[in-house]
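> forwarded from #structure-qc
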């Protein structure tokens, strides 16, 4: 079912990507495919694939306001002042999301879906 995601369905779910070409969205969806577990329920597999694709597109500077921050290299900024420039980067929280997933709202949502569908650890 996750293979049936079209760029049009993706844009319907995430309108911030309305101006992104079909081929770019299709590429991000294909890249997201291996990130989704084979045992995930169909609805979570579709959502996960879309979220990961949106995350990747955002990091690549495609989409809405978050993408503008990505293009400026400012996704992890906590504060920015202009007069005598002052930048503050966010410190990662103790339970930081792995890799770049914590940098976008889509990545954080993907991480939630991934954790919900992950294999639990058994303590013996």
């Amino acid at each position: 079912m996750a293979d049936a995601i079209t760029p049009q369905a993706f844009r319907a779910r995430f309108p911030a990507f309305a101006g992104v070409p079909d081929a770019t969205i299709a590429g991000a969806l294909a890249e997201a495919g291996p990130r989704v577990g084979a045992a995930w329920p169909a609805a979570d597999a579709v959502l996960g694939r879309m979220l990961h694709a949106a995350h990747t597109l955002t990091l690549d500077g495609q989409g809405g306001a978050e993408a503008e921050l990505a293009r400026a290299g400012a996704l992890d900024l906590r504060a920015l002042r202009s007069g005598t420039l002052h930048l503050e980067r966010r410190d990662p929280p103790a339970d930081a999301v792995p890799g770049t997933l914590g940098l976008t709202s889509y990545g954080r949502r993907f991480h939630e879906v991934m954790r919900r569908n992950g294999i639990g650890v058994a303590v013996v």
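QC bot note: Helices lie at 7-13, 22-32, 42-59, 65-71, 105-117. The beta strands are 77-81, 86-89.
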